[in-house]
Write a structure and sequence with these properties.
It contains 5 helices and no strands. The protein has 128 residues and is an all-alpha fold.
Length: 128
């Protein structure tokens, strides 16, 4: 019998919990490993999209780990967030626009350059 005020099965079903954020140490290592192996020597458009994707994925995981790190606040991470945002802006284009000295529309500096800058920033600001 289901009447007013009676319990319903829907209210008793537990909500799934969000997946736990990765450890900051693991996320930092994964990101820096991707940076160390993620450059693209070709200047031709469309030849580095896979490398860009291989960098942005661990950068997104790193952001989640930074957000979840309880011992530091957003102020500490502000420069790192800016660099990840630049990487996001670069991949938001949806393609690799190529590189080279005369390619002023390249999105590679946003992705590859910011990734290297972030890796150096992480080295200079170690967190345990």
């Amino acid at each position: 019998m289901s009447g007013c005020g009676g319990g319903s099965e829907a209210s008793e079903v537990a909500k799934p919990s969000a997946p736990a954020a990765p450890s900051l140490s693991a996320a930092t290592t994964a990101f820096q490993d991707a940076v160390a192996s993620g450059d693209c020597p070709s200047t031709e458009p469309g030849t580095c999209w896979e490398q860009m994707q291989a960098l942005i994925k661990p950068a997104r995981v790193l952001r989640k780990a930074m957000n979840a790190h309880k011992d530091t606040g957003p102020e500490f991470w502000s420069e790192a967030y800016v660099l990840i945002d630049k990487m996001e802006k670069g991949v938001a284009v949806g393609e690799d626009r190529g590189g080279g000295l005369t390619n002023y529309t390249s999105n590679r500096p946003d992705v590859f350059g910011s990734a290297h800058d972030l890796s150096r920033w992480l080295d200079a600001h170690p967190v345990q």
